Every structure is written in C-alpha cells, then in structure tokens.
Amino acid sequence: MVYCLKRIMFPGRFQPFHLGHLYVFEKIIREYDEVVFIIGSAQDGFTCSNPFTAGERIEMINETLKYYGYSRDQYWLIPVPDINKPLAWTAYVLAMTPRVDAVVSGNPHVQYIYEWFGLKVVKIDLINPDLYNGTYIRKLILNDSDWEKLVPKPVVDYIKSINGVERIKRVCRHGFG
Predict the structure, then answer these.
(1) Residue 28 burial (C-beta neighbours within 10 Å; 0-12, 13-18, 19+)
(2) How far apart are alpha carbons 69 and 53 in whole angstroms?
(3) Could you tell me the pTM of the whole model?
(4) Where are the alpha helices (DSSP H) in the chain?
(5) Quick check: 95 and 106 in contact, CB under 8 A?
C-alpha cells in the first residue's frame, strides 16, 4: 500500500483538553486527513501539574471529538512518557508514531525542535492563550472559579464523573507536584 494520507502531529499534555485544543484540531483537520495527538507526560497523573492520567486524557479527547461528530479514523491518540531530554524525546516520539507530514504547535520551543529535525511545522495562532491554557484552567478549578466555559461539555462531564475537581484540589493543596 502506498502512503497517501496527509497526517499532522499535535503534541501536548492536554491537562485538560480545552476549547483552544479543539480550535486547533478543527483548523488542521480541514487540511489533513488524520491528526496524531501526542499525549505528553504520559507517565504522570495525580499531581498538580498533571492531575489527569494519560488514559483519562485520551478519554477526554475521544469523547469530545465524538461529541462534535468526528470519526475515530480521523485521529490517533498516542501516549508518550517524558524522558527529560528534548531532542531525544522528539526522536522517541517520531519513532512511536505513524509517519507524519507536519507538526502543529503554538509553542516556539516545540516548533524549533521539530524544524531542527527537518519536519514541516504548522505555526498556529492560538486563540486567547491566556484563557485557553491548562495551567490557568486548573487554577480556576482549584479556586472554585468559572472553568467550565473554557472546556468542551464532554470534558466538563468527564472531569466531574471522575471527581477531577476534588482531585485537583487535593493534589494541589497537599503539594503533590
């Protein structure tokens, strides 16, 4: 079989998957046949910076894309643990995923590393990165502020179903990373 699908990689931690992530997906899926989500920091969970496990983040993304009518054959969900060596991690990611034509990111550091590897990088203008930001959303959750408007409804429902609000409060207030 000849490789003819156009695939783009979308790396992130997705802690949690929010409307900014959905915006990027909806923008790139118009030009590419498949999106390969890289679920970074896959080894982490139950910490303040990474409260959700890789499996939970996979479910959040999958439920959201299903809710918005996307077919499962339009995207891949691949968890990849950190190894704390950016160039080695990038090579590891490329070895763990199907072949891609490009990488999408709004992070200049990520863009530079993939460009250095010779990949085409799609630089995306993020929408309201101060609002659509996992750190900010987790802080809102921690402080009982209005976070639900920043994430898709399936993510709100999922976080509530796993008692994720309480989890964030416990791990952040007790200093678990």
Answers:
(1) middle
(2) 25
(3) 0.94
(4) 19-28, 54-67, 86-96, 108-116, 134-142, 153-161, 164-173
(5) no
Asked whether 44 and 19 are in contact (CB, 8 A), the reply is no
pLDDT tens digits, the chain, 177 residues: what are they? 455 789 999 999 999 999 999 999 999 999 999 999 999 999 999 999 999 999 999 999 999 999 999 999 999 999 999 999 999 999 999 999 999 999 999 989 999 999 999 999 999 888 999 999 999 999 999 999 999 999 999 999 999 999 999 999 999 987 655
Task: For 81-108, give one letter per residue: b (16+ CB within 10 A) or e.
Answer: eeeeeeeebbeebbeebeebbbbbbbee
SS3 for 87?
Answer: helix
- Residue-range domains of the chain with CATH: 7-173 (3.40.50.620)
